[in-house]
Amino acid sequence: MEDESSLEHEEHDGISDIPLPSRYPPFRPHRMQIQRSNVCSRAYFVVVMVFFHVYILNVIGLLLYVHYNNGPGDHVSGGGDSSAGSASPSGTPLPDHAPVSGELHVEDQSQGFTLPRIEGIRVGHVQQVSIVPDRMHEMKTISLKPLLFEIPGFLSEEECRVVVQLAQLKGLMESEMKAPNQGQEESNQPLLSLSTEEVFSLLDLNQDGLLQKQEIVSHSRSRDGTWLNPDTLRQILTGLEACPTGMLTLEEFNRVYDVSQRPGQQHRVKLRSQFKQRSKHTWLYQGQGSHHVLRTLRNRVTCLTRLPSALVELSEPLQVVRYEHGDFSNAHHDSSPSHSETTCAHTRLAGNKSALTEVPCRYLTMLFYLSSVEDGGETTFPVADNRTYEEQALVQDGIDLTDTQETCGRGNLRIKPTAGTALLWYNHLSDGRGWMGELDEYSLHGDCPVKRGVKWVASSWINVDPDSQQQARYQRLVAQRHQAQPGMEEHYQPLPHSNLHQDL
Ligand SMILES: *[C@@H]1O[C@H](CO)[C@@H](O)[C@H](O)[C@H]1NC(C)=O
Ligand SMILES: *[C@@H]1O[C@H](CO)[C@@H](O)[C@H](O)[C@H]1NC(C)=O
């Protein structure tokens, strides 16, 4: 109260004689006078109207954006539409979308292209998708962590039979007990039988009693040299780089290597069961000249995911797997967390030679059930839509959730194989800027043992490098190589995107 009254006083004072030395008075009366004289003036009115119009335009722009994002999305694939439309593989925005969403994708366009992502909305949400000309399919959201969809009837029974027969013709081989690509799992192999000296000697290729950087790097690039896990390698390398000489003597190596063997890491390794699987598999190429069912399948993947077709075409071939009685695979991730010392296997062509370990980088997985299984053989997502995820919590009270032979019944989500049904899930989160972000830990999945019948599945993985520049470099390199060989050129012409959009 006192403050207010004193203020009033000061104002009165201020009006009477302007140059008062106190702080408030010179400003207060001044401002009030300006307002009073300008509130009804023309200039003021114009300013207000301009702001008002800008505001209205903003609202309209926002509504239009929301409309274009959701309108066709409900029909096809959630929010994927505008981002797919705004960036074709070459990076040029399609004109019809440019005025509305151009501003929002400026950043993405500078990177070349964006990765569309289908909206899940909520578990149980069903959206209509058009992947073949003459009928619509229903795509149901099964979980949000990971973002997982089920599309019944993605393949006809006839198409399932063709893929199985092609796989049989090509011939299947035993899947290794240890998946060669599971970088994380590889660390499980015992290291205890080797002394530090022996490890040093193994790494010291030229046997000069010193470890050079090149020796560690080259070791890490060999596929068989996986008994040292990436973390250990990184620590050795860090220790080496800290050395003024740039080389490690045995004594220095002892120190570095012992540090990297501290319990924290080994602990986790011991807790988790080894990655195991039993099945037979083969790979089927899906490019030009392959069976039309295989090519159709790939086109449907492009259609559904709305990814740039060049990306789909440069991805791994189709993997077909047969699980017989008792066959299974333990829970695993299809893709890999990105570290500075790893490089994606698929972009190694454009890769940095100093990267330590090659890992699979798979933005999403499409899995096709080619047969129905009488009993067992479910695909399990043990932590799907769990409230939290902690790696340690996977093994608790002697129960290992990754061990599908023992704990399939305990997982959060199990999907029964039905011939023709497809699953689609994202192995990575978005980075928030239209590109691939972190590995989604919740995408952990495995195959329960088949109890009766035979399970045939096919997997399509879309390879993306978390480093979009690297991905772009790689695609440019491939394109250049194929331009150098005119016969193959057609193969790398991206599908005409405008046509695709009409189909959808
Ligand atoms: C490749 O490695 C070099 C150093 O060895 C580094 O300067 C460069 O930035 C790296 N490039 C990429 C794309 O990571
Ligand atoms: C699943 O969520 C529950 C509840 O938050 C939690 O106690 C448990 O540890 C989680 N499981 C994993 C594997 O993180």
Q: Please count the beta strands (DSSP E, at least 2 residues each).
A: 24
Fill in the CATH topology of the domain at 126-176 and 279-491: Jelly Rolls
Write down the CATH class of the domain at 126-176 and 279-491: Mainly Beta
Report the mean per-residue pLDDT as an integer. 76
Strand portion: 15-25%
End-to-end distance: 69 Å
Q: What molecules are bound to this protein?
A: 2-acetamido-2-deoxy-beta-D-glucopyranose
The biggest beta sheet reads:
9 strands, antiparallel
- CATH 2nd-level architecture of the domain at 126-176 and 279-491: Sandwich
Structural class: alpha+beta
- Neighbour order of strands in the largest sheet: 1-2-3-19-13-24-9-8-4
Task: Name the helicity range.
Answer: 25-40%
Low-confidence stretches: 1-32, 71-111, 178-191, 221-226, 262-272, 488-504
Radius of gyration from CA coordinates: 30 Å
Q: How would the global form be characterised?
A: globular
Biased composition (Basic and acidic residues): 1-15
InterPro entries: EF-hand-dom_pair, EF_Hand_1_Ca_BS, Oxoglu/Fe-dep_dioxygenase_dom, P4HA-like, Pro_4_hyd_alph, Pro_4_hyd_alph_FE2OG_OXY
Cofactor: L-ascorbate
GO molecular function: iron ion binding; L-ascorbic acid binding; procollagen-proline 4-dioxygenase activity
